[in-house]
Design brief:
The protein is an all-alpha fold and about 80 residues long. The chain has 3 helices and no strands. It is elongated and about 60 Å long.
């Protein structure tokens, strides 16, 4: 099932790129400014900025993993069906 492996790789590439380039994506689109924090009063400005940056990066990485997962399953199934 060679075609399943190719389709799997094609589906995996955008997910891997999203995970690898998560920090760049967050900085380019300023996604950290859109993150909501429920306990802003308890953090200093520096801690709040770091929290928002880390949360935005994590959101992008999780999205990348979700995008990559079907391609990975397809690749594994295609590999074992030979």
């Amino acid at each position: 099932m060679f075609y399943m492996e190719i389709i799997g790789v094609i589906l995996m590439v955008p997910g891997f790129l999203a995970v690898y380039l998560a920090k760049y994506i967050v900085e380019k689109y300023r996604l950290n400014e859109k993150v909501v924090c429920d306990f802003e009063g308890e953090l200093t400005e520096e801690e709040l900025a770091m929290y928002k940056l880390n949360k935005a990066i994590l959101n992008i990485k999780m999205t990348g993993m979700i995008i990559m997962l079907p391609g990975l399953f397809l690749f594994i199934v295609g590999t074992f069906m030979k």
